Amino acid sequence: MHRVFVYGTLKTGEPNHHWLTSKNNGYSKFLGNAHTIEKYPLIIATKYNIPFLLYSPGNGDIIKGEVYEVDEAMLANLDVLEDHPNYYIRDLYTVNLDSNQDANGECWIYFLKTFDEELLNKAKFSCYSSSGDHGLPYIDRSNRDINYMLRWKQKYLKN
Questions:
Q1: What global pTM score does this model have?
Q2: Annotated catalytic, 72?
Q3: From start to end of 12-154, where are the E strands?
Q4: Of residues 14, 69, 72, 82, which has the active-site annotation?
Q5: CB 55 within 8 Å of CB 112
């Protein structure tokens, strides 16, 4: 079993939460709300309003999210959604569970690790919601122009 910290569209009530609740994707169990120990920049970018956690420790805010226990099948399906390791990089980091300090520990977190520093100039958030007062609702990938996303990746992601 693995633990995964989710901070964006996979959280409860968000547009991709169904990935974690579909039994077809594998097993998942909600362990609790949590937050990162280190500060990171959580931004919303592209014209499709995608939340990104940028790997820039100490820059940004303590990030609030949720921790799930998942099996190998669910982790593999989350890797597909996050396009790990081509887009996001999944790595282990320590988080604190808000209600159960005994459950603190390492979780997989999906980060953008190689990005154009221009992204650090975007507004930063400590907690993501697609319906937040930022006015930037998430647009599902089925409604995106693949060519736009390829151009965005070429411009902002450094490989």
A1: 0.93
A2: no
A3: 28-40, 42-45, 50-53, 61-70, 89-97, 105-111
A4: 82
A5: yes
